[in-house]
Write a structure and sequence with these properties.
- The chain is an alpha+beta fold and 111 residues long.
- A hairpin with a 4-residue loop joins strand 6 and strand 7 (106-110).
- The chain has helices spanning 31-47, 56-69, 74-79, and strands at residues 2-5, 8-19, 22-28, 84-87, 93-95, 97-101, 106-110.
- It is built from three helices and seven strands.
């Protein structure tokens, strides 16, 4: 199977597994591609750790500071939320929702 993001092929998925509702595999792609998406998903996980009771201006400042520290921008983070698809062995292009992307290329998604 091949993983696509916004119609761009990122690489091949290997060691596929499925346990309702999650699917998983390792992406075989160039290191920079994996690092870029892993950084975005690590940032998204970090966002969940911001306390809910912070004033909006402090929460926004932390968000922007962490975004800069990681060398990301809002457009990259927003784009990672959608546009994912997997081409199956029979050639079908199926949309997926990627929920996790690790630095070793391990990803999880829902069909």
């Amino acid at each position: 199977m091949d993983l696509f993001h916004h119609d761009v092929r990122l690489g091949t998925l290997v060691d596929y597994g499925y346990a309702t509702p999650w699917a998983e595999a390792w992406l075989r792609a160039d290191t920079l591609t994996i690092q870029r998406y892993a950084a975005i998903y690590a940032f998204r996980a970090w966002v969940e750790t911001i306390p809910d009771d912070l004033p909006d201006d402090e929460s926004d400042a932390r968000y922007e500071e962490e975004l800069r520290r990681r060398g990301l921008d809002e457009a990259q983070v927003a784009a990672a939320l959608h546009g994912w698809a997997i081409r199956t062995p029979d050639g079908a292009m199926l949309p997926v929702s990627v929920s996790g992307f690790e630095a070793d290329g391990y990803i999880t998604w829902r069909w």
